[in-house]
Design a protein that fits this description.
Distance between the termini: 42 Å
Radius of gyration: 19 Å
Shape: elongated
Strand order of the largest sheet: 1-3-2
Structural class: alpha+beta
CATH architecture: Orthogonal Bundle
Mean pLDDT: 91
CATH class: Mainly Alpha
Number of domains: 1
Length: about 100
């Protein structure tokens, strides 16, 4: 459940949105979008990486960050499970209401 913890704060969610729209970005490019220092953004990136929501690729001295599909899949699977449970409950309620 590190994936959900990583998204508990607004800033990491906004970073994920930025990477989803822009693709690979360097820390300083992300920092410019949030008016934060690179060390502050790096802390958010560390949390997102631990949650498997982003990945980092080294290119020479640069570190490129992008979306990691595995964390998104975890969220999607959880939502699908919740939807199945919810739909089953709604179906039961609908059947009960028909008997009234």
């Amino acid at each position: 459940m590190n994936t959900f913890r990583a998204l508990a704060d607004d800033t990491p969610r906004e970073i994920v949105n930025l990477l989803a729209y822009k693709g690979e970005l360097l820390v300083n490019e992300i920092s410019k979008n949030f008016n934060m220092t690179s060390p502050t953004v790096s802390q958010h990136l560390k949390v997102l990486k631990t949650g498997n929501l982003i990945q980092m690729k080294k290119e020479a001295q640069k570190r490129m960050y992008s979306i990691d599909e595995s964390g998104l899949s975890e969220i999607e699977n959880w939502l699908l499970d919740i939807r199945k449970i919810w739909n089953k409950r709604l179906g039961s309620l609908n059947e009960y209401l028909k008997t009234l």
